[in-house]
Amino acid sequence: MEALRSIIGKVASGTTLTSEESEFAFDSMMSGQASPSQIGGLLLGMRVRGETVEEVTGAASAIRNRMPRVDAPCDPIGIASTNDTPFCSVNVETCASFIVAGAGVPVAKHTDRAASSSSSTANILARLGVKTDLTPEAVARCLQEAGIGFLFASAQYPAMQRIRQIRTALGTRTIFNLITLLSNPVGVKRQMVGVFSREWVQPLALVLKNLGAESVWVVHGSDGLDKITLAGPTFVAALEAGAVRTFEVTPEDAGLPRHTEALESGDVDGNAVALQSVLGGAASRYRDAALLNAAAALIVAGRASTLQEGVALGQEALDRGAAATRLERLIAASNE
């Protein structure tokens, strides 16, 4: 394709693409028209030069237009993170998702399917009895019956399998580390996103604004976590009423203690037990981290006005067993 070769040439020369050019290029990838060498060259060229807001907007639009849609019977919030920070942790976002759902806000959590990580959402859910290889119709049923559903990128659009092989061969982060979490098949308008680098906090909020989001928090912890951290400040870009503002939050803002020790991962069994322990009401650093991130998601959803209010709602969902009930309902609904 001459048009695609021209776009690759622009990237190779250091020129940035318009959102339309980026959308065309990534649509070519998703449709199978681009060769593996063209895909690899484009991804690497953009990574070396540095991706722009317009390019990420166009790429995410292409994926959104190609993927199967999930017709949610509710108005869920999206919770996602890049899941590629330098050190592992127990799966805070997954635990936070059950807390948010237990507080009465439906959650459509979108993530990529990790092949081997002991803290991956898919592995932990499978160990708990949740079926994860679901059709869009089955995910919609989970949202209806359990108030929570999990969507896995590689399962929702098979074209990602071919691109995954190329990304693995490149051995470095690419724009796909950003656009996967922006491509929730439910088409959520409210979203909390954790990102691997502080430099992407504000740009991703602008991308989500371009894509039609209404309420967003993009976060990066000062310790490198792609989530709100207990160890110190977290950098935030919030989309509110059509404008993006940046600020910092700390655990103390939420009325939670600061923890400097890392939340270390165990094996799949250990992480599944840890999640069940939090949902069962046990106090721990993991519980505090999940409550902190759930509180921010409840602000994005419009259910809380402050982190302290969000933590209180989350604690209530845990203490009365509502968060644990969401897991039980998800297990049942996913296996129907």
TrEMBL record:
Keyword Amino-acid biosynthesis attributed: yes
Domain of life where this protein originates: Bacteria
Gene Ontology MF term list: anthranilate phosphoribosyltransferase activity; magnesium ion binding
Cofactor: record remark: Binds 2 magnesium ions per monomer.
Single GO biological process annotation from the record: L-tryptophan biosynthetic process
Broad EC category: transferase
Binding positions for anthranilate per the UniProt entry: 167
Domain Glycosyl transferase family intervals: 89-323
This protein's GO CC annotations: cytosol
SUPFAM superfamilies (alphabetical): Nucleoside phosphorylase/phosphoribosyltransferase catalytic domain, Nucleoside phosphorylase/phosphoribosyltransferase N-terminal domain
Domain (Glycosyl transferase family 3 N-terminal): residue spans on this chain: 6-66
Reported cofactor(s): Mg(2+)
Residues reported to bind Mg(2+): 226
A Pfam family it matches: Glycos_trans_3N
Binding-site residues for 5-phospho-alpha-D-ribose 1-diphosphate, renumbered to this chain: 89, 121
Sorted UniProt keywords: Amino-acid biosynthesis, Aromatic amino acid biosynthesis, Glycosyltransferase, Magnesium, Metal-binding, Transferase, Tryptophan biosynthesis
Role noted for this protein: Catalyzes the transfer of the phosphoribosyl group of 5-phosphorylribose-1-pyrophosphate (PRPP) to anthranilate to yield N-(5'-phosphoribosyl)-anthranilate (PRA).
Family recorded in the similarity comment: Belongs to the anthranilate phosphoribosyltransferase family.
PANTHER family attached to this UniProt entry: ANTHRANILATE PHOSPHORIBOSYLTRANSFERASE
Subunit structure: Homodimer.
HAMAP family found in the cross-reference section: TrpD
Protein name per UniProt: Anthranilate phosphoribosyltransferase
Source organism per UniProt: Bradyrhizobium quebecense
Phylogenetic classification of the source organism: Bacteria, Pseudomonadati, Pseudomonadota, Alphaproteobacteria, Hyphomicrobiales
Gene name of the encoded protein: trpD
